[in-house]
What we know:
By secondary structure, chain A is of the alpha/beta class.
Amino acid sequence: MSSFTTxxxxxTTLLIGAVGLSAAAQAAEIKIGVAEALTGPxxxxxxxxxxxxxxxxxxxxxxxxxxxxxxxxxIEDEQGKKEEAINAFKKLIFQDKVLMVFGPTLxxxxxxxxxxxxxxxxxxxxxxxxxxxxxxxxxxxFRNSVTEADVLPVTIxxxxxxAKIKKVxxxxxxxxxxxxxxxxxxxxxxxxQKIPVTTTETFAxxxxxxxxxxxxxxxxxxxxxxxxALIAEGAPIMVQARQLGLKVPVIGGNGMNSVxxxxxxxGASDDLWVGSPWSSQNRAKANNSFIIDFxxxxxxxxxxxxxxxxxxxxIAASAIKKIKLTGNLAADxxxxxxxxxxxxxxxxxxxxxxxxxxxxxxxxxxYDAQQLPIISVTRGVQFEIVK
Amino acid sequence: xxxxxxxxxxxxxxxxALFALGFTLVFGVLGVVNLSHGAVFMVGAYxxxxxxxxxxxxxxLSLAFAAGVSGLVGLLVDVLVLRPLRARxxxxxxxxxxxxxxxxxLNSLAQxxxxxxxxxxxxxxxxxxTLHFAGLDATALELGIILLxxxxxxxxLLTLGKTxxxxxxxxxxxxxxxxxxxxxxxxxxxxxxxxxxxxLGGVAGVLIGxxxxxxFPLMGQPVLHKGIAVxxxxxxxxxxxxxxxxxxxxxxxxxxxxxxxxxxRDAVGFGLLFAVLLMRPKxxxxxxxERKV
Lengths: 387, 293
């Protein structure tokens, strides 16, 4: 796709040159790097994200908001792996010389690859990294994904209030940065809200059988299961829990917030509580038009990851609009970095602003999202918004 | 709770054993650690998914289809890759490395054809209810997995022990050269073994795909790692060993979750495996290096 676009642009430029309209050929190509997991276990997130970007870029280029300049995406597959994410970042930054980089898909990879962008003084913008400590890497690290630290306390409080939960069991994947960080935040929130934990169990990526843990959980008689998992394990966990007669609510993190749950845990997907900045049931105008445009373009419904990517690209474009591109790459990259934090945006995920994050020593570092989560619960094949 | 955990262990052990049976068969006869077995397992699952979704075949027919397709893939692996390597007397490690490459190629192919996202079999395929007896919650599928792994093991054992075909296979396992001199069609039996082992792997893929409700191109990898441990523990190439070691790993994992804690699961499972191998370096049934079947 990207080579096709480049060719088309080259061809257009050539034609314009031939006709003699040399002034119009001044239109600059703004190259933006995208490194997402397009293959591998995280590909279902990565492909959603890529589609969100594509839709936004088409709208931005068609609207003429950047004058004659057009955004071109340079897309790399980082396979959901740390090493590949590092390679993709290096290629985009040093070889393709992009203005900024979006990605990577998983927090795990962001921990490894974001320092490359920080060292090269290039803005790196995560749309799906919700683990702690990503934006503490440095002042070039941005994200519009609301962190689990902000979402999970609200999810728990809402579920506890609505489903009369007194005590919970905790189950999490302990071999993944994202699910482990989700667990840490769940524990903090449970402690803060003084909700006793009956037992804490773990599993590993790629497990197919969770009945040993679930049987143990069932014996402790909890009112709900707090689950920090990605959907590949989370969906079978819900099915197997229901098979064992464990029919309590499941309180999930970001990884469980996908319409895939209705397919993968068909018949066992009810009563899953999740919080997220985006909901397909949110009828705000910006979100409605996003859902309609996305569905038309990709013949499928968007999810949270597409929505966040879509908003992120618009946020970046708003920042690019504020600066004057000089053609000096280092200067342009720095100018973009300075313009981004001032952007305010209302999009598919609602009102958005950046919030300064701090590093481990407490000094100002990158930027997190400042947004309120929407809490939903699954009923049938819908996420229903809960107030 | 103990009864339920013992049942969980039995069905998890059945899952491991089912995968390990084909894996160990190839090693027993061909002397190759076939690391594409995980990918073949995945091919079986996707073949059945296609049969169910596109051709609307019933489960038993889809299962047979999966066995056929993966068997064919196994056969091709033997004819196109392993046989040329045998003909050139390639050292032991080469076929193993080649099968790693094949596994990656098959995974990528599946990703290209089916996409990387998780798929599942339609739930209508199986009776959805759970059976309650003696304080247990069991699904028909779990009972099926336990039964089928036992049946397949028995069939394999009887074939190898009591039939002319089995005697020929054991002769090959002793020495392919001697078997050839005795007039046994060694290459033909290699092909048959590759087909049968891969078909078993495909069946395991379907059943485990049904069990976990998550089909994805890399679904064979974690099972492959456990499978390697299982066939080493059982004694490389030994059918009874693979079955028992599969059950052993299932019990070790489930009971360590139940009584020690789930964070210690792999530490306990693989720690026990290590301890057994310290005492019996050839595995539970691997009495001598030469006798493999």
